[in-house]
Prior knowledge:
The chain is globular. The chain has one domain (39-297): Beta-lactamase, CATH 3.40.710. The strands form three sheets. The protein has a five-stranded antiparallel sheet, sandwiched between helices. It has a three-stranded antiparallel sheet with strand order 3-7-6. The protein is of the alpha+beta class and 299 residues long. Helix 2 packs across helix 6 (132-142) and helix 2 (69-82) packs across helix 7. It is built from eleven helices and ten strands.
Amino acid sequence: MNKILVLLIILFSLTFSHSKGQSIDTLKQQINRILADKDAMVGIAIMGPNPNDTLSINGDVHLPLQSVFKYHLALAALNQVDKGKMNLKDKITITAADLNNNLWSPIRKKHPKGAELTLAEIIKYTVAYSDNVGCDLLFKLAGGPNAVESYLHQMGIMELAIKYNEGTQQSVWERQYENWTTAKAANKALKIFFENSNQQLTPESYNFLWKVMKGSKTGKTTIKAFLPHNPEVAHKTGHSGKNKDGLTGAQNDIGIIFLPNGTYFYLSVLVSDSKEDSEVNQKIIADIAKLTWDYFENN
């Protein structure tokens, strides 16, 4: 009887493991069906709490960051804060010249003649509202694109390049391709700093950053669009718009999605070189997020 019981336990264990393996494969198949008729390059990376719950599709392809890099920029700025070189309460003067870049800026809309804002306010505008005036001010304060790229490389996020600020990037369409990441590296950048195992961020900077990320107001809440229960999502979007040929260089969303049971998963979806409408690109991201949510909620 003991031998039979042991055999049954082993058989059950093998069957359960096999079904889990099939589940992640099934998720990948479901995602591939979404992508099958789309005229776009889509990089996807998914990581759950279990190492087996990991998959990627085009996860090593270099794809434009667009405004997703404002998350990486915030990390570099907060590193300067944690070193004592800046303080979140520092007052930063925004001049009329700073405002004159003709790019998206809620700061300009609220303060058309300039303003004096704290560093914390500028980071919040930059990350949560994707403000381009705030972004390029932060680049100056953090030492420029090369300094930001170098910091991320030092933290082990190698598959990433940041060569231009927003003003320079958006002045020439092709430059967005020089500010790139892979979907896998985007997830890694989320994981390293959220788990904070080596105290990359002080508690003050950590709590500040993730509160800002959870309060993101951009991208029509793309990842969250089809998720039930209005879950917490800490994310950052990026969008290039279309060029004269109707091509979308990038429409992205990367984030951490928190499940009702207290667990979470990382999801990065980078849609590039898309000939689809913006609504279709957004739906690609939202559909993938919903399928991934269903997988983790049911496993």
